[in-house]
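User: Okay, second chain of the day. Same drill as before: sequence in, structure tokens out.
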Amino acid sequence: MANTIFVSGATGTVGSEVIKQLIKKGASVRAGVHSEQKAGILKKLGAEVVAVDLNNIKSIQTALTGVEKAFSLSPLVPNLAELGVNFVKAAKIAGVKYIVRASGLGADSPQAITLGKWHREAEKAVETSGIPYTLVRPNSFMQNYVNFAGYTIKTQNAFYFPHGNGTISLIDVRDIAAVVATVLTESGHEGKAYELTGSEAISNYQIAKILSRLTGRAINYVDVPEDTARQSMKDMGTPESIVEALMELAAIIKAGYASAVSPAVKQITGKQPISFEQFAKDYLQFFK
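Assistant: Same drill. Structure tokens below.
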């Protein structure tokens, strides 16, 4: 298939939205999925669906055969960096001409936290591959409030994070996808790294006020002690290295180091980033 774009993590929060936006632009999309059981909606959108194991270079190579451009994204697992490196190795063998790699805000910082260091290792593999590339480094997603807090907001009128009063320049995944779809279908972004954030930094207390107003119920933010948050993740079976990486991220947010605002979304897409207020209106069914 000529000019096919491959998207990894195709059933995930970011990957699925990237596919929607690429197809809107008329692109030919091959969707990489861990299991084809969840792939029905992708096929309905018009994507070609292939099973891929990011732990297996040969599997990735097969999925990338005949692909010109690729969006690389690793799930949040202890070997996140290794999966990113595997993707680059497979892309070189398959003859991929351009890679857009999803990373994380602050990955290039000398004081990067563990998650940033993992992302940076994958970035370096892309940078030294000889394949033209673009890096996108988003802040935390607004959709996390659906995926990780939606249930308790609905059932307990509360959500729980160990973030104190720290503010964070959250970004809507739809804006990340808009940037990715743009750089995959336009030239001029090669060799660049874009930090992606929303247009404002807000605290969980402010988020609780927005959700209270929109739902018509009193929604409370509960600032969870670090030890409680750590134990809760362990009780859910989260791997130790992921627990500690997420606690580092929480500490950065609490200290106010995740509040910087970048103009990149507007510069690349021509549109203002989606505000948390608009996000909450669009996803209101998940909070009511």
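The chain has a mean pLDDT of 96.

User: Thanks, on to the next one.
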